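Notes from hallway chat w/ T.B., transcribed later so I don't forget. T.B. wanted the structure written out for a chain they're using in a teaching module, and asked if we could keep both sequence and structure tokens in one place. Agreed to drop them here.
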Amino acid sequence: MITFTATLVKFNAKGEKSGWTYFEIKPALAQKLKPGTKMSFRVKGQIDNHPIEKTSLLPMGKGIFMMPVNAAVRKAIQKKHGDTVNVQLEVDDRKLQLSKDLMACLKDEPHALAFFKKLPLSHQHYFSKWIESARTAETKTKRIMQTINACLKGQKFGEMLKS
């Protein structure tokens, strides 16, 4: 586990990351967490004593990683960009589970299931997390249908959202 303080910063209007609030993890700290890695990886821990899990550190180049801090976490810790946070992180090696409802429905559509299984695991999790984040059964059902249709069309998560 690593412990450090960081400042919340916000991307200016730049491409797809426009508006994100995040903090940076310097190369030396990232190497203590997961030596030799240059790709994103999941962590768990705390930001200002607020628990976090199933969150990924994303590479920014030159060994620097970033961790996005969403609005729910910022609200919980009552911080905004420019504020300092106390961070404790460790690698989260737990295997993420795919949506059971999605997998059950995909079994009824072999072509969609075949496409879904060819996607990288991280992309499968984009779909699954989106489905499981639905607040109502109606929304969850709608998202499962959208996912299956996207897989039948050979669309990845981002392509589905854009269409």
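Follow-up for T.B.: The chain has seven helices and seven strands. Might be a good example for the class.
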